[in-house]
Amino acid sequence: MTKDQRGKLSIFALGGLDEIGKNMYVVQYGNDIVVIDSGLMFPEEEMLGIDIVIPDITYLVENKDKVRGIILTHGHEDHIGGLPYILRQLDIPIYATKLTMGLIEHKLREANILSDTRRYVINNKSEIRLGSTLKASFFYTNHSIPDSVGVCIDTPEGAVVHTGDFKFDMTPVNGQVADLHKMAELGKKGVLCLLSDSTNAERTGFTGSESTVGEGINEVFRKAKQRVIVATFASNIHRIQQVVNACQLYGRKLAVVGRSMVNVVNIASELGYLHVPSDLIIDTDEINRLPANRVAVISTGSQGESMSALTRMANASHRKVEILPGDTVIISATPIPGNEKLIGRTVDQLFRIGADVVYSKTSHVHVSGHGSQEDLKLMLNLIKPKFFIPIHGEYRMLRTHAQLAESVGVRPENIFICDNGDTVEFTGGRARYGPKIQTGKVLVDGLGVGDVGNIVLRDRKLLSQDGILVVVLTLSKANGTIVSGPDIISRGFVYVRESEQLLDEANRIVALTMEKCMKEHVSEWASLKTSIREALSKFLFERIRRRPMILPIIMEV
Amino acid sequence: MTKDQRGKLSIFALGGLDEIGKNMYVVQYGNDIVVIDSGLMFPEEEMLGIDIVIPDITYLVENKDKVRGIILTHGHEDHIGGLPYILRQLDIPIYATKLTMGLIEHKLREANILSDTRRYVINNKSEIRLGSTLKASFFYTNHSIPDSVGVCIDTPEGAVVHTGDFKFDMTPVNGQVADLHKMAELGKKGVLCLLSDSTNAERTGFTGSESTVGEGINEVFRKAKQRVIVATFASNIHRIQQVVNACQLYGRKLAVVGRSMVNVVNIASELGYLHVPSDLIIDTDEINRLPANRVAVISTGSQGESMSALTRMANASHRKVEILPGDTVIISATPIPGNEKLIGRTVDQLFRIGADVVYSKTSHVHVSGHGSQEDLKLMLNLIKPKFFIPIHGEYRMLRTHAQLAESVGVRPENIFICDNGDTVEFTGGRARYGPKIQTGKVLVDGLGVGDVGNIVLRDRKLLSQDGILVVVLTLSKANGTIVSGPDIISRGFVYVRESEQLLDEANRIVALTMEKCMKEHVSEWASLKTSIREALSKFLFERIRRRPMILPIIMEV
């Protein structure tokens, strides 16, 4: 893809399609490559033991002399979380708005690569040249974190617009409505291709304004008799601002709890995205010194994550903050799919303590940061793209977004529903699928990046279901007879004390199998091991309908 | 609890409180015990490898001469699924309505205990004596399976009413409105204590009528150009009836797919709960012989379960039925918490095939079978109990249901929010908490019932996170030196080929540890093993931040 790439525009994703997470989109024209976002993804349920997942960036590493920069659209983990890993392999400049850069710098500092990274802060007036053929400009959007932008990449084939994550909020908390006029202008000048956020493509109507949540929060503060604890996403600075405002309105001091909440509040305050009166914030140690009706707490843990601040408070295992009967807890978030049960348990625990719990199932204390169908159609109508690629979503969301695009007049043959690695090539105003690019999931487990593959995951799955039996025996070098063993050690299989008989029988099965092998003069270890594994597996399945992993170990002396 | 039990009424749950599943409630007066429901629960995420969970019935086994019968309120697994296990330990008669009994009989036949079980079919006219002091009568309710009943147990202390699972449906599919008059009569005569279904206590309003779903389904049938595939819960016979009706209305034949769907359709048709014209049903082999617009399929798999019919169809791995572009698939169910992702993946696969997918997020094709807040208040107002115990729900649901009861006039001190095993004792019109009864979760894994406990589960969890390293070495009996090894075998830890260096180093760590032990004349195997485990664990955590299970095996020759 080097020579024939000249004079051709190519768009593809290394992550973010057919999934929610690890967003990474690429626009390439000839020898100029620009990357939009570098996210991480949290592991799927079947990725046992995995901490995070990042995109496979083999293509970028192989073409690193062409990569002109990475643009980060906003500061969420699924857009910036992969940077510490990516930047270890690629020495390229990064571009982000002030708040996004603040959050990135914190991340790079922790990874010890801050000073090695070339960083450029951009805003909606910036124009940056990326190589000899590409130019990027930006427009502000509304999202659940401030300073989010969409990107316009001007290419010799035409303009490519990437929305970032967005909704339209007509009454945003910081007063900064999206750059509607700039979007309109882009549309008027003509856009070749739009890449737009599909997260909420299944939802009808417009997504509500963030400020309506403020009203809900105020209402709860007004009625609360004792302390108010608000749990939300640490990065939702608008939400935090509204809690700050409620504190001012109702005369409460605010304690900030949870590592990432403290971190974001500091960065956002320093950079001017969060406005907190200097005497409003109190230390967690002071919570108990003030009357309960003069205190509020803002905290992480809105997803019921086991180690988070709210979960620890609910389980009475938080070092500093205790929730008492009569306190009010607001869970200002909706469950991310998969977290419903965890959140349910946290709510149960809080109710058990005797707290009043206000959560999205019963009250209006959350809105999404992603646009619903009417937001998406408004974006399409503003940008008026010739071609459309729905991004940032699982397949049904991409597909539904494509239908929306069709409904507002994008020609069906001009809509490309892609998977990660699918390329769309544009030449002379025409588009078609190009060659596939290598992509995939790189699994991070502890400090290991990519060393856990399918075999390891399959073994973890097996081990998690029925455990393991290790069968140990020692053979004589001289005549192949058993010198010691067979011994069976089991973990995660049965509770040994209650299953002695079963394990005794298993032992006999192994001994019998060995005898049989010897009679038949089987002496290759591989065959012996296979025989033991098969005989034992059959016996256990028949007896107890379980299939533990069986690991025969044969020693020779 | 024998002598002082005389003249005292006691109510408690062995399952169903602070959980959704394994419902089992007990009403005891003196020497007479009656059990209501015997459900199973599907395992929580952390119960690795477990198939199902049933209640601990130690109390019933210890008092088996007093147990007069088990009443089954309806045919759902969380109410009847534990019977095959329970009845192996308790020889007591069971009471259920005709359809419920049909489903139970199928279950007991499979478990080979049908002929050993005394079975009595009841209806809303039945009155059954249970021992010398208790008498049960029944009233029909509306639920997502026909023939559901609530139970009234008359005791010397007063009437105890158990609602079963219910909602109020003013336009039910089978025309059989709940026994409102009988409930009103019970309320008028006076009810001591009500136990009522809390599943939807968090939802405002009334739960919609099942017949509104029929309209949604008809609408989809009307528009569908090719085949229509409907996935729903096998036990939702009303829903199946409405699909049958839609087939008649729009001239389609119906194929029934999925083991439990075939089973329920057969039982329900035989017993007269499902009305299917004899020429409507076709064999799955005939699906492809008929024009696509003359065929519909009803199937299991509405929860995206990996082995279910719909999931296999979506993955093109079903032996008989293939879904083609242009087919319409209705997922007539909402995700049970925890299943959101599985269902999402199935919908994605169906979209990929090119099917039109109609699901609850985008269309009205499902209603719940459990009453919302207004249904629950109506039940409370009809029954007018003196005491109230919310049942069938996680803690927050019980708690919210208690608030509803208070709002319609039940005195707060007369509401008992219980956990499984908590007893409420009634004497002379007063109630208080009594002694705690043994309860718990009995885990079923394959054919093993209760042989997997916390240690086994903890090991499975450990194994699932970072796998296992088995360290094998052979020592000389003579002088304690290493004769062979150390050998390290890993499973589920790292991909060995890419981590040779790490494993080599691990090997050296073990060898060094052994040397050190020998110098220090440590020779007890337990100490040697601990030293190896600790040294290796420390090394691996520092190097790669993982904590695999380490299993040292020392042999002596």
Automatic annotation (TrEMBL), chains A, B:
<dbReference type="InterPro" id="IPR055132">
    <property type="entry name" value="RNase_J_b_CASP"/>
</dbReference>
<keyword id="KW-0698">rRNA processing</keyword>
<feature type="binding site">
    <location>
        <position position="143"/>
    </location>
    <ligand>
        <name>Zn(2+) 1</name>
    </ligand>
</feature>
<keyword id="KW-0106">Calcium</keyword>
<comment type="function">
    <text>An RNase that has 5'-3' exonuclease and possibly endonuclease activity. Involved in maturation of rRNA and in some organisms also mRNA maturation and/or decay.</text>
</comment>
<dbReference type="Pfam" id="PF00753">
    <property type="entry name" value="Lactamase_B"/>
</dbReference>
<feature type="domain" description="Metallo-beta-lactamase">
    <location>
        <begin position="21"/>
        <end position="217"/>
    </location>
</feature>
<feature type="binding site">
    <location>
        <position position="392"/>
    </location>
    <ligand>
        <name>Zn(2+) 1</name>
    </ligand>
</feature>
<dbReference type="InterPro" id="IPR041636">
    <property type="entry name" value="RNase_J_C"/>
</dbReference>
<feature type="binding site">
    <location>
        <position position="79"/>
    </location>
    <ligand>
        <name>Zn(2+) 2</name>
    </ligand>
</feature>
<dbReference type="InterPro" id="IPR001279">
    <property type="entry name" value="Metallo-B-lactamas"/>
</dbReference>
<feature type="active site" description="Proton acceptor">
    <location>
        <position position="370"/>
    </location>
</feature>
<keyword id="KW-0540">Nuclease</keyword>
<feature type="binding site">
    <location>
        <position position="51"/>
    </location>
    <ligand>
        <name>Ca(2+)</name>
    </ligand>
</feature>
<feature type="binding site">
    <location>
        <position position="74"/>
    </location>
    <ligand>
        <name>Zn(2+) 1</name>
    </ligand>
</feature>
<dbReference type="InterPro" id="IPR011108">
    <property type="entry name" value="RMMBL"/>
</dbReference>
<keyword id="KW-0479">Metal-binding</keyword>
<dbReference type="GO" id="GO:0004521">
    <property type="term" value="F:RNA endonuclease activity"/>
</dbReference>
<comment type="subunit">
    <text>Homodimer, may be a subunit of the RNA degradosome.</text>
</comment>
<dbReference type="Pfam" id="PF07521">
    <property type="entry name" value="RMMBL"/>
</dbReference>
<dbReference type="Pfam" id="PF17770">
    <property type="entry name" value="RNase_J_C"/>
</dbReference>
<keyword id="KW-0255">Endonuclease</keyword>
<dbReference type="InterPro" id="IPR001587">
    <property type="entry name" value="RNase_J_CS"/>
</dbReference>
<keyword id="KW-0269">Exonuclease</keyword>
<dbReference type="Pfam" id="PF22505">
    <property type="entry name" value="RNase_J_b_CASP"/>
</dbReference>
<dbReference type="InterPro" id="IPR042173">
    <property type="entry name" value="RNase_J_2"/>
</dbReference>
<dbReference type="GO" id="GO:0006364">
    <property type="term" value="P:rRNA processing"/>
</dbReference>
<keyword id="KW-0862">Zinc</keyword>
<feature type="binding site">
    <location>
        <begin position="366"/>
        <end position="370"/>
    </location>
    <ligand>
        <name>substrate</name>
    </ligand>
</feature>
<keyword id="KW-0963">Cytoplasm</keyword>
<feature type="binding site">
    <location>
        <position position="49"/>
    </location>
    <ligand>
        <name>Ca(2+)</name>
    </ligand>
</feature>
<feature type="binding site">
    <location>
        <begin position="234"/>
        <end position="236"/>
    </location>
    <ligand>
        <name>substrate</name>
    </ligand>
</feature>
<feature type="binding site">
    <location>
        <position position="76"/>
    </location>
    <ligand>
        <name>Zn(2+) 1</name>
    </ligand>
</feature>
<comment type="similarity">
    <text>Belongs to the metallo-beta-lactamase superfamily. RNA-metabolizing metallo-beta-lactamase-like family. Bacterial RNase J subfamily.</text>
</comment>
<dbReference type="GO" id="GO:0008270">
    <property type="term" value="F:zinc ion binding"/>
</dbReference>
<dbReference type="InterPro" id="IPR036866">
    <property type="entry name" value="RibonucZ/Hydroxyglut_hydro"/>
</dbReference>
<dbReference type="GO" id="GO:0005737">
    <property type="term" value="C:cytoplasm"/>
</dbReference>
<keyword id="KW-0694">RNA-binding</keyword>
<dbReference type="GO" id="GO:0004534">
    <property type="term" value="F:5'-3' RNA exonuclease activity"/>
</dbReference>
<feature type="binding site">
    <location>
        <position position="78"/>
    </location>
    <ligand>
        <name>Zn(2+) 2</name>
    </ligand>
</feature>
<dbReference type="GO" id="GO:0003723">
    <property type="term" value="F:RNA binding"/>
</dbReference>
<feature type="binding site">
    <location>
        <position position="165"/>
    </location>
    <ligand>
        <name>Zn(2+) 1</name>
    </ligand>
</feature>
